[in-house]
Amino acid sequence: MQSAPDDLLELDQQVCFALAVASRNVIALYRPILEPLGLTHPQYLVMLALWGKAPLRFGEVAEMLRLDPATLSPLVKRLEQSGLVERQPVDGDERTFALVPTQSGTALRKQALGVPPAVIERLGMPLERLVALRDELTAVITATDVPK
User: What are the chain's domains?
Assistant: First the structure.
């Protein structure tokens, strides 16, 4: 059904509203799943990046997660304090460092393998539908990415 022009400002018609509520709800769904791992959702994202491609320079992690350095820095500090991540110097560049999971951080990956199936189960949606949704959201991210 097509909205009348005067319906364009209805809350339920707003993509931004649907994305904001879905984002909050999905992140909240992760909370009890990640709690036994000792991770918050943002910390989980940092660990996913590092489990996939470590060592990564701090700036590379910020870019992958689309976070500004000021937001990423406290996340990394907490992961370091938890003994999950460590900094390594980068050869030839004294001003930068790479991040790598510690032995404990690497071991945590095994526990984290249970996170995606638990999320899928709690969402109660078919995997194919979730994959399609992820692909659509990736297209939205691409469409809204601001060139640097």
Answer: 11-141 (1.10.10.10)
